[in-house]
Amino acid sequence: MLFGPKPKPRYFSAALLLTTFLLGCKEKEQAPAPEPPEVEVTEVTQRNVPIYMEWVAQLNGRYNAQITPRVQGYLLKQNYRDGFFVKKGQLLYEVDPRAFEVTIAQAKAQVAVATANLSNADTNVARDRPLAAQSAIPQKQLDTDLATQAASKAQLDAAQAQLAQAQLNLSWTKVYSPIDGIAGLSTAQVGNLVGTTTIMTTVSQVNPIWAYFNISESDYFTEAQTFYRLISGKRVASPVLEFIQSNGTTYPLKGRIILVNREVASQTGTIQLVAEFPNADAILRPGGFGRVRFQVAMNKGAMLIPQAAVIEVQSMYQVAVVEPGNKAAFRIVKVGDRIGTDWIITDGLKPGDQVIVQGFMKVREGTPVSPKPFVAPAERN
User: Fold this and answer.
1) CA distances (Å), 137 to each of 120, 126, 128, 131, 147, in order?
2) How far apart are CA 244 and CA 112, in angstroms?
3) Residue 57 scores a pLDDT above 90
4) Which of 215, 274, 298, 306 makes the best surface tag, with the fewest CB within 10 Å?
């Protein structure tokens, strides 16, 4: 009789499979829920914000002297460094003077000849006048002597004028700066033939420097009284002008309006104004662009949030906020002016609301979140 292992019943295998399945379901049910996404939040702040009017402006020197020689000749020397300050009366260029020195020598010789001719004519008149009075010589001879004397005097005057002109031309071979300022790059090189149409360089007076800008006619009428007070120099409480440089920084020194043009341009409907700014260190240079502005009012209790927190969708603006219970919610808002890196909110929020600045792309309406304080990029460094 053979003995062997007793076969297990089939119901035992089915029970084992059922137990394994139930254990797997239990493990899935006990898997931990995902953590709420982290978001960076900040409170809606409230403070007084100045309201400005501002316009695009271009800088230029108060005086811009184009340096042009008054005589023609070959350039011998440049006596200044490109881009450096020069003083009024400082020598800038020297033109070859030799041709003008020769002209002076010729003019001096002509003066000597004219002087000798006049001296001879004076002698003839002095000799013949008493003889003519005594009828020893014809009156016609004295008249001829007098005419020759007058002609000789005129020739001497002409020769002296030519000498003066030649000396003046010689002096013009040295070119001086007519103003204090910064001399630009020289367009004429040593050895070039220069003349009265050659602009060799430009000297600009940059302290103070002028900012030219155009404002609309309506803006002008809105602030006409302010402009008038600034120009008239009356001691009234008028806002000072600021210049915003092209890199966004505010020029540290304040300016004032010194000129309002006489007319409104018919093609653009704008009027040109000029503001003057101190510029002793020549930080501002002619040709530079920026913006001029001055304060016209104060927005008291304005609500501000970082610009990074504002979402623009099809010309509508919304923000994500953290409501009680740390749940996200989206709100439609109305925005005002930008103030630095912040934005004024005119409707849709209230002071103290927690606004999501970083991480709002990870949340939906009602999504639980894990908020932490927002740190501005400048403060992170």
Assistant:
1) 18, 13, 8, 6, 16
2) 67
3) yes
4) 298
